[in-house]
Known about the structure:
single chain; globular; disordered C terminus; transport; mainly alpha
Amino acid sequence: MRGIGTRRGRRAIWGWALYDWANSAFATVVLAGFFPLLFQDFWNTGVAPEVTNLRLGWSNSAASLVIVLSAPLVGALADAAGARKRLLFLFALAGMIATALLAGVPGGAWLSASLLFICATVGFMGANLLYDALLTSVAPPEQWHTVSGLGYGLGYLGGGLMYLGCVVAALRPEAFGFADSTQAALAAFVATALWWAVFSIPLLLLVPEPPAVGAAGGGSAWLRGFTQLRTTLGNLRRYRSVCIFLLAYWLYIDGVGTVIRMAVAYGRALGFERDQLITALLLVQFIGFPAAIAFGHLGHRIGPRRGITIGLAVYILVCIWGALIRSPWEFFAIAILVGLVQGGVQALSRSCYALLIPAHMSGEFFGFYNLMGKFAALIGPPLFGLSGAWFGDVRYSMLAVILLFVAGGVMLWRLPDSAFGNKRSLSDS
């Protein structure tokens, strides 16, 4: 199942990686692109940018709270029942339906749009939890950095192509049979749901379901999931390297996620035009495709910690420059910098964590991984919005994010070197 050199192993890797191609349409079209624009210009007409950004931040946090409360149990249940794929598609289906329904929300109905956005985001993030956990079953440990990079690379390319198609339709709505650009943008939500569904099929067909953890006769899957989760929580202090990494990840990925979710709204608040913001996001996507793959190879050569640190340093530069930005060309330059490191930080974080956990319990441990990532999103987006509201200038929002990258980087370097030398390192002393 994990033989990368076999035809079956290669098919499993590509089937797994193509799910990143599938769900990244949601990340680009909904999370980063059209939803923030429509939320400000269509569902929050006549509302101050600071208020809109705050509402968007709280919507992102509400979705993250649901995942925070459920992720470890979902992961433990998936391991105990041998149901990582089944639960993945359950979450994904919920996300696809909620995404499509966004197209029917009328103008001014910001609360309805927020509720559907929360449901769609919960489906997206819940499915990602199980998707990440499948990494350990599709390739051997020495390939995790490159395979993780392949997934993120395909995600950036697929998400970029989907977003480009939606942008063309929004810029020339009459050529596609739409009355105006707003109608075309709303239709993009339906197209995203369909893209997500179609390109999820390879994972369903080509990736094997890992076996259940524990004896089959040990009670119901729910009971075994609760029992395993309780055991792991009770013994979590034994997994020192895992705990240190999760704390570091919680801090720095908060900054990464905040930049992803709030960049378009930030640019809009500074007065940049829609087409300029769209161009910047496309730059991130298409640069991110080769950059994420390259970072996977870089992590294999110099180690994931050094690779992540390079990315965090670039993000600090991005935040400083972003607070001082005045011209559209600067926004494009910042987008290029983000594209060079965004996927790399995400990919190396996933594969680095996979090195630290027991592979047969990856669903549960990736539940904690996603919990920390989404718990961070409870703080970052609201902090971003509140900083602008407190100081009366959205530029202060960018400077607040720097603290997260610095603190995360410091914690990352508290990991002992031995944690990266043993692919099954669990309890470094």
